[in-house]
Inverse folding.
């Protein structure tokens, strides 16, 4: 069971910076608090009823004090906001070579799927020194993915993908918690993150009962769910080929152009009416409620895998 300490170990790439930011805010707000309390008490004593302190100070307003403290606090707090925003933006811009792991939250467990098809529950194995990008979704209610030692916490909301990246900087076992009240056994929704040397991680992956890989499993679903009947070669209706889709801009019927990321693919399957590819009939049925989150992950992985082995000519010829 993960223990929650006031100052958890610093095991993730953001840990040191988040701690400095937190410490800096604590220091500045702490100093402000003590200064205010000091002045409060001082003035209470000085201007208490019956004291003979001078009360008419109307002629002595000091503009340099007024401007000084207003300007200084503005600069300090805007600087903290800029620092925090910078960290925030980096959290959502994963490096291109990041290792991808899908996480599905469910009452009351964390399920992880590696691209090789390896699955784990309430455990997440990651290599150290390599950026890891998590694509998270929820099977039921809002959960919050929290690894204190990495200083990352992110809500996992049903109906959408949430992504986040980090890099473990230290091997070891760290707590994984749900930080959003999600039902009766919320407090038991605990797991652990095992950060391993890349060599050990590779060995661990090999030792898991795997499959041919997430994308392969997705390919099988793609056929069994009937997607290939429309999207496959020789399909009977005019549906866009999915080769080379992932990561590329898609012109929509309403004139918008969106990037085909995981979210777009997911929404195309569950809410096909929301974003219709330009030049195609709006006939794709919705698969909402028919595909489990874990299977969606497989289909998305399959469609993503089509991006890399697409012949270049097809990539350019998506818009009819
Ligand atoms: C009845 C035929 C049909 C079936 C079955 C079907 N689709 Fe589609 N699909 C279409 C058509 C037509 C479009 C283009 C119009 C649109 O975007 O809704 C489309 C669009 C898409 C897109 C967006 C593609 C782009 O180029 O923007 C994706 C992704 C997709 N489908 C995936 C799937 C998956 C996965 C399945 C199976 C679970 C599936 N489709 C089943 C007909 C179908
Ligand atoms: Cu939860």
């Amino acid at each position: 069971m993960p223990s929650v300490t006031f100052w958890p170990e610093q095991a993730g790439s953001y840990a040191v910076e988040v701690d400095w930011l937190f410490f800096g805010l604590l220091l500045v707000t702490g100093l402000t608090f003590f200064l205010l309390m000091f002045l409060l008490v001082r003035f209470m004593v000085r201007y208490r009823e019956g004291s003979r302190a001078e009360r008419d100070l109307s002629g002595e307003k000091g503009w340099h004090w007024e401007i000084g403290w207003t300007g200084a606090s503005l600069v300090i707090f805007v600087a903290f906001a800029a620092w925090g925003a910078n960290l925030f933006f980096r959290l959502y811009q994963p490096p291109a070579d990041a290792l991808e792991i899908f996480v599905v939250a469910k009452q009351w467990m964390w399920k992880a799927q590696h691209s090789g098809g390896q699955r784990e529950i309430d455990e997440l194995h990651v290599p150290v020194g390599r950026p890891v990008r998590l694509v998270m979704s929820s099977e039921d209610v809002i959960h919050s993915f929290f690894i204190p030692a990495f200083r990352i916490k992110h809500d996992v909301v049903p109906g959408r993908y949430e992504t986040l990246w980090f890099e473990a900087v230290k091997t070891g076992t760290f707590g994984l918690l749900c930080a959003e009240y999600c039902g009766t056994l919320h407090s038991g929704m605990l797991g652990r993150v095992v950060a391993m040397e890349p060599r050990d991680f590779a060995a661990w992956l090999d030792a898991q009962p795997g499959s041919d890989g997430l994308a392969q499993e997705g390919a099988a679903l793609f056929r069994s769910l009937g997607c290939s009947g429309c999207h496959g070669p020789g399909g009977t209706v005019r549906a866009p080929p999915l080769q080379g889709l992932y990561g590329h801009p898609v012109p929509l019927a309403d004139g918008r152009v969106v990037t085909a990321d995981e979210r777009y693919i997911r929404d195309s399957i569950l809410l096909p009416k929301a974003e219709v590819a330009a030049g195609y009939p709006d006939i794709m049925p919705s698969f909402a409620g028919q595909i489990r989150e874990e299977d969606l992950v497989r289909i998305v992985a399959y469609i993503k895998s089509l991006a890399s082995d697409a012949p270049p000519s097809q990539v350019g010829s998506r818009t009819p």
